[in-house]
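Review session, final week

We close the course with one last complete record, chosen because it touches almost every idea we covered. It is Methionyl-tRNA formyltransferase, a protein from Hydrogenophaga pseudoflava with 322 residues. Go through it on your own first, then we will talk.
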Amino acid sequence: MRVVFAGTPEFARVALERLHAAGFAVPLVLTQPDRPAGRGMKLQASPVKQFALAQGIEVAQPRSLRLDGKFPDDAATARQALLAARPDVMVVAAYGLILPQWVLDLPRLGCLNIHASLLPRWRGAAPIHRAIEAGDAETGVTIMQMDAGLDTGDMLLAESLSIGATDTTGGLHDRLADLGGRMIVEALELASCGGLRPVPQPAEGVTYAAKIEKAESLIDWRRPAAEIERRARAFSPAPGLVTELAGEAVKVWRVAVDSADGGIAAPGQILSAGAQGIRVATGDGVLTLLELQRAGGKRLPAREFLQGFALTPGQVFGAQTA
Protein backbone atom coordinates (compact mmCIF):
# COMPACT_ATOMS: atom_id res chain seq x y z
CA MET A 1 0.00 0.00 0.00
CA ARG A 2 1.36 3.41 -1.04
CA VAL A 3 0.71 6.06 1.64
CA VAL A 4 1.06 9.81 1.18
CA PHE A 5 1.36 11.49 4.57
CA ALA A 6 0.26 15.05 5.41
CA GLY A 7 1.14 16.50 8.82
CA THR A 8 3.27 19.09 10.55
CA PRO A 9 3.85 18.99 14.35
CA GLU A 10 5.21 16.36 16.74
CA PHE A 11 1.80 14.68 17.02
CA ALA A 12 1.99 13.92 13.29
CA ARG A 13 5.66 12.95 13.35
CA VAL A 14 4.89 10.09 15.74
CA ALA A 15 2.31 8.71 13.31
CA LEU A 16 4.67 8.99 10.34
CA GLU A 17 7.39 7.20 12.29
CA ARG A 18 4.99 4.37 13.15
CA LEU A 19 3.90 4.00 9.51
CA HIS A 20 7.52 3.92 8.37
CA ALA A 21 8.45 1.37 11.03
CA ALA A 22 5.48 -0.81 10.00
CA GLY A 23 6.88 -1.04 6.48
CA PHE A 24 4.34 1.06 4.57
CA ALA A 25 5.69 2.69 1.40
CA VAL A 26 5.59 6.47 1.89
CA PRO A 27 6.64 8.08 -1.41
CA LEU A 28 5.65 11.64 -0.45
CA VAL A 29 5.11 13.79 2.62
CA LEU A 30 3.21 17.08 2.69
CA THR A 31 3.96 19.50 5.52
CA GLN A 32 3.70 23.21 6.30
CA PRO A 33 6.39 25.61 5.01
CA ASP A 34 9.34 26.23 7.34
CA ARG A 35 8.53 28.86 10.03
CA PRO A 36 10.67 31.28 12.06
CA ALA A 37 11.25 29.92 15.56
CA GLY A 38 13.46 30.41 18.62
CA ARG A 39 15.16 33.54 19.86
CA GLY A 40 16.95 34.09 16.57
CA MET A 41 13.69 33.54 14.61
CA LYS A 42 15.51 31.35 12.11
CA LEU A 43 13.50 29.24 9.71
CA GLN A 44 12.87 25.82 11.20
CA ALA A 45 11.57 22.68 9.52
CA SER A 46 8.55 20.97 11.04
CA PRO A 47 9.07 17.74 13.01
CA VAL A 48 7.43 15.84 10.14
CA LYS A 49 9.80 17.34 7.57
CA GLN A 50 12.83 16.58 9.73
CA PHE A 51 11.83 12.93 10.04
CA ALA A 52 10.94 12.58 6.35
CA LEU A 53 14.25 14.02 5.16
CA ALA A 54 16.18 11.78 7.56
CA GLN A 55 14.47 8.78 5.92
CA GLY A 56 15.00 10.03 2.37
CA ILE A 57 11.29 10.67 1.75
CA GLU A 58 10.32 13.36 -0.76
CA VAL A 59 8.78 16.44 0.93
CA ALA A 60 6.40 19.03 -0.54
CA GLN A 61 5.52 22.24 1.33
CA PRO A 62 2.74 24.05 -0.54
CA ARG A 63 1.29 27.18 1.03
CA SER A 64 -2.12 26.10 -0.25
CA LEU A 65 -3.69 23.17 -2.06
CA ARG A 66 -6.44 25.22 -3.69
CA LEU A 67 -5.91 25.36 -7.44
CA ASP A 68 -8.08 28.50 -7.59
CA GLY A 69 -6.67 30.05 -4.41
CA LYS A 70 -4.00 32.57 -3.44
CA PHE A 71 -1.08 30.27 -4.34
CA PRO A 72 -2.21 28.35 -7.45
CA ASP A 73 1.37 27.56 -8.51
CA ASP A 74 2.04 25.87 -5.15
CA ALA A 75 -1.17 23.86 -5.49
CA ALA A 76 -0.41 22.83 -9.08
CA THR A 77 3.10 21.69 -8.14
CA ALA A 78 1.71 19.70 -5.19
CA ARG A 79 -0.87 18.12 -7.49
CA GLN A 80 1.83 16.89 -9.84
CA ALA A 81 3.77 15.45 -6.90
CA LEU A 82 0.67 13.69 -5.61
CA LEU A 83 -0.15 12.24 -9.01
CA ALA A 84 3.42 11.00 -9.37
CA ALA A 85 3.24 9.38 -5.91
CA ARG A 86 0.21 7.28 -6.99
CA PRO A 87 -1.15 6.98 -3.44
CA ASP A 88 -3.58 4.30 -2.40
CA VAL A 89 -4.42 6.42 0.64
CA MET A 90 -3.49 9.71 2.25
CA VAL A 91 -3.02 9.85 6.02
CA VAL A 92 -3.56 13.30 7.56
CA ALA A 93 -2.58 14.34 11.08
CA ALA A 94 -2.58 17.98 12.24
CA TYR A 95 -1.52 19.15 8.78
CA GLY A 96 -2.80 22.73 9.02
CA LEU A 97 -4.15 23.12 5.47
CA ILE A 98 -7.68 22.51 4.24
CA LEU A 99 -7.85 19.67 1.72
CA PRO A 100 -9.94 20.63 -1.33
CA GLN A 101 -12.15 18.06 -3.00
CA TRP A 102 -9.57 17.15 -5.66
CA VAL A 103 -7.20 16.00 -2.91
CA LEU A 104 -9.90 14.03 -1.09
CA ASP A 105 -10.78 12.24 -4.33
CA LEU A 106 -7.24 11.50 -5.53
CA PRO A 107 -6.18 8.45 -3.44
CA ARG A 108 -7.93 5.16 -4.21
CA LEU A 109 -9.01 4.76 -0.56
CA GLY A 110 -9.46 8.47 0.12
CA CYS A 111 -7.95 10.42 3.01
CA LEU A 112 -7.86 9.18 6.62
CA ASN A 113 -7.48 11.64 9.48
CA ILE A 114 -5.99 10.97 12.93
CA HIS A 115 -8.07 13.18 15.21
CA ALA A 116 -7.26 13.59 18.91
CA SER A 117 -10.77 13.38 20.32
CA LEU A 118 -13.74 11.05 20.51
CA LEU A 119 -15.80 12.50 17.68
CA PRO A 120 -18.17 14.23 17.42
CA ARG A 121 -16.91 15.86 20.61
CA TRP A 122 -14.20 18.45 19.98
CA ARG A 123 -14.13 18.82 16.26
CA GLY A 124 -11.66 21.49 15.23
CA ALA A 125 -8.19 22.85 15.95
CA ALA A 126 -7.50 22.34 19.67
CA PRO A 127 -9.25 19.18 20.91
CA ILE A 128 -6.65 18.27 23.56
CA HIS A 129 -6.64 21.73 25.15
CA ARG A 130 -10.41 22.03 25.16
CA ALA A 131 -11.03 18.58 26.64
CA ILE A 132 -8.86 19.42 29.67
CA GLU A 133 -10.26 22.93 29.97
CA ALA A 134 -13.82 21.59 29.99
CA GLY A 135 -13.04 19.02 32.67
CA ASP A 136 -13.76 15.98 30.48
CA ALA A 137 -13.12 12.64 32.17
CA GLU A 138 -11.92 11.02 28.96
CA THR A 139 -10.76 11.73 25.44
CA GLY A 140 -9.19 9.55 22.78
CA VAL A 141 -8.36 9.18 19.10
CA THR A 142 -10.70 8.76 16.17
CA ILE A 143 -9.51 7.56 12.77
CA MET A 144 -11.90 9.26 10.38
CA GLN A 145 -12.64 9.06 6.65
CA MET A 146 -12.26 12.69 5.61
CA ASP A 147 -14.96 14.57 3.72
CA ALA A 148 -15.43 18.24 2.84
CA GLY A 149 -16.69 19.19 6.32
CA LEU A 150 -14.78 20.12 9.46
CA ASP A 151 -14.08 16.73 11.09
CA THR A 152 -17.49 15.48 10.00
CA GLY A 153 -16.52 12.28 8.16
CA ASP A 154 -17.39 8.70 9.02
CA MET A 155 -15.55 7.10 11.94
CA LEU A 156 -13.39 4.07 11.16
CA LEU A 157 -11.74 3.36 14.53
CA ALA A 158 -12.00 4.99 17.95
CA GLU A 159 -10.26 4.35 21.25
CA SER A 160 -10.55 6.23 24.53
CA LEU A 161 -8.05 7.46 27.13
CA SER A 162 -8.85 8.73 30.61
CA ILE A 163 -7.90 12.28 31.56
CA GLY A 164 -6.28 12.42 34.99
CA ALA A 165 -6.74 15.17 37.56
CA THR A 166 -3.21 16.45 36.97
CA ASP A 167 -2.93 15.88 33.21
CA THR A 168 -1.59 18.77 31.13
CA THR A 169 -1.95 19.24 27.41
CA GLY A 170 1.74 18.35 27.02
CA GLY A 171 1.46 15.00 28.76
CA LEU A 172 -1.90 14.08 27.25
CA HIS A 173 -0.62 15.06 23.80
CA ASP A 174 2.18 12.50 24.05
CA ARG A 175 -0.18 9.71 25.11
CA LEU A 176 -2.61 10.53 22.31
CA ALA A 177 0.19 10.73 19.75
CA ASP A 178 1.32 7.23 20.71
CA LEU A 179 -2.25 5.97 20.52
CA GLY A 180 -2.84 7.63 17.15
CA GLY A 181 0.33 6.14 15.72
CA ARG A 182 -0.71 2.64 16.76
CA MET A 183 -4.28 3.09 15.52
CA ILE A 184 -3.40 4.38 12.04
CA VAL A 185 -1.19 1.35 11.45
CA GLU A 186 -4.09 -0.86 12.53
CA ALA A 187 -6.49 1.07 10.28
CA LEU A 188 -4.30 0.68 7.20
CA GLU A 189 -3.79 -3.02 7.86
CA LEU A 190 -7.57 -3.43 8.05
CA ALA A 191 -8.06 -1.27 4.94
CA SER A 192 -5.69 -3.47 2.95
CA CYS A 193 -8.03 -6.43 3.39
CA GLY A 194 -11.33 -4.53 3.28
CA GLY A 195 -11.84 -4.77 7.03
CA LEU A 196 -12.75 -1.16 7.82
CA ARG A 197 -16.41 -0.43 8.53
CA PRO A 198 -17.34 3.29 8.34
CA VAL A 199 -19.76 4.51 10.99
CA PRO A 200 -21.48 7.91 10.62
CA GLN A 201 -20.90 10.32 13.48
CA PRO A 202 -23.88 10.82 15.81
CA ALA A 203 -25.80 14.04 15.34
CA GLU A 204 -25.86 14.58 19.11
CA GLY A 205 -22.93 15.72 21.23
CA VAL A 206 -21.16 17.88 18.66
CA THR A 207 -18.73 20.42 20.15
CA TYR A 208 -16.06 22.59 18.54
CA ALA A 209 -12.50 23.01 19.79
CA ALA A 210 -11.69 26.55 18.73
CA LYS A 211 -8.09 27.59 18.18
CA ILE A 212 -6.40 28.92 21.34
CA GLU A 213 -6.29 32.71 21.23
CA LYS A 214 -3.60 34.74 23.03
CA ALA A 215 -6.21 36.71 24.97
CA GLU A 216 -7.34 33.49 26.68
CA SER A 217 -4.05 33.39 28.59
CA LEU A 218 -5.18 36.28 30.81
CA ILE A 219 -6.42 35.04 34.17
CA ASP A 220 -9.86 36.33 35.09
CA TRP A 221 -9.74 35.99 38.86
CA ARG A 222 -13.51 36.37 39.01
CA ARG A 223 -13.82 32.85 37.61
CA PRO A 224 -13.97 29.82 39.95
CA ALA A 225 -10.66 28.40 41.20
CA ALA A 226 -11.42 24.99 39.65
CA GLU A 227 -11.95 26.56 36.24
CA ILE A 228 -8.68 28.51 36.37
CA GLU A 229 -6.85 25.35 37.48
CA ARG A 230 -8.17 23.42 34.49
CA ARG A 231 -7.15 26.21 32.14
CA ALA A 232 -3.63 26.23 33.63
CA ARG A 233 -3.27 22.53 32.78
CA ALA A 234 -4.90 22.98 29.38
CA PHE A 235 -2.50 25.81 28.48
CA SER A 236 0.65 23.95 29.58
CA PRO A 237 3.18 23.91 27.96
CA ALA A 238 1.77 26.71 25.79
CA PRO A 239 0.64 29.41 25.89
CA GLY A 240 0.51 29.38 29.71
CA LEU A 241 -1.50 31.73 31.92
CA VAL A 242 -0.59 35.33 32.67
CA THR A 243 -1.62 37.88 35.28
CA GLU A 244 -0.32 41.30 36.35
CA LEU A 245 0.89 42.87 39.57
CA ALA A 246 2.21 46.42 39.99
CA GLY A 247 2.47 46.81 36.25
CA GLU A 248 4.51 43.66 35.71
CA ALA A 249 3.30 40.62 33.82
CA VAL A 250 3.68 37.32 35.64
CA LYS A 251 3.22 33.91 34.01
CA VAL A 252 1.51 31.25 36.09
CA TRP A 253 2.37 27.67 35.14
CA ARG A 254 1.23 25.36 37.91
CA VAL A 255 -1.59 25.81 40.40
CA ALA A 256 -3.76 23.84 42.82
CA VAL A 257 -7.26 24.38 44.14
CA ASP A 258 -7.22 25.13 47.87
CA SER A 259 -9.97 23.64 49.99
CA ALA A 260 -10.20 26.81 52.11
CA ASP A 261 -12.78 29.55 51.58
CA GLY A 262 -11.54 32.94 50.41
CA GLY A 263 -13.99 34.72 52.70
CA ILE A 264 -14.71 38.32 51.73
CA ALA A 265 -11.44 38.81 49.86
CA ALA A 266 -11.71 40.33 46.39
CA PRO A 267 -10.96 38.12 43.38
CA GLY A 268 -7.22 38.25 42.70
CA GLN A 269 -6.33 39.26 46.28
CA ILE A 270 -3.31 37.53 47.79
CA LEU A 271 -4.26 35.77 51.03
CA SER A 272 -0.79 34.46 51.90
CA ALA A 273 2.60 33.98 50.24
CA GLY A 274 5.13 31.44 51.47
CA ALA A 275 7.22 28.41 50.63
CA GLN A 276 4.11 26.27 50.06
CA GLY A 277 2.71 28.65 47.46
CA ILE A 278 0.85 31.89 46.91
CA ARG A 279 -2.79 31.63 47.92
CA VAL A 280 -5.13 33.84 45.90
CA ALA A 281 -8.86 34.45 46.21
CA THR A 282 -10.99 33.81 43.12
CA GLY A 283 -14.66 34.28 42.27
CA ASP A 284 -15.32 30.92 43.89
CA GLY A 285 -12.68 29.40 46.16
CA VAL A 286 -8.94 29.81 46.62
CA LEU A 287 -6.16 29.00 44.16
CA THR A 288 -2.57 28.26 45.22
CA LEU A 289 0.07 29.32 42.72
CA LEU A 290 2.91 26.79 42.73
CA GLU A 291 5.10 27.73 39.77
CA LEU A 292 5.54 31.22 38.29
CA GLN A 293 7.74 33.16 35.90
CA ARG A 294 8.71 36.82 35.57
CA ALA A 295 9.17 38.37 32.13
CA GLY A 296 12.56 37.26 30.80
CA GLY A 297 13.09 34.94 33.76
CA LYS A 298 12.89 31.22 34.40
CA ARG A 299 9.97 29.15 35.58
CA LEU A 300 10.40 28.85 39.34
CA PRO A 301 8.63 27.15 42.23
CA ALA A 302 6.81 29.67 44.42
CA ARG A 303 9.47 29.53 47.15
CA GLU A 304 12.24 30.60 44.76
CA PHE A 305 10.00 33.05 42.91
CA LEU A 306 9.26 34.89 46.16
CA GLN A 307 12.99 35.37 46.83
CA GLY A 308 13.14 37.82 43.94
CA PHE A 309 9.57 39.11 43.92
CA ALA A 310 8.22 40.07 47.33
CA LEU A 311 4.48 39.61 47.70
CA THR A 312 2.38 40.52 50.71
CA PRO A 313 -1.17 39.60 51.71
CA GLY A 314 -3.68 42.15 50.51
CA GLN A 315 -2.04 42.85 47.16
CA VAL A 316 -4.31 42.17 44.21
CA PHE A 317 -3.42 40.53 40.91
CA GLY A 318 -4.92 42.30 37.93
CA ALA A 319 -5.35 41.56 34.23
CA GLN A 320 -8.97 40.59 34.55
CA THR A 321 -10.97 40.42 31.37
CA ALA A 322 -13.93 42.68 30.85
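Two points worth writing down before the exam:
The chain has two domains: 2-209, 215-308.
The mean pLDDT is 95.
Good luck, everyone.
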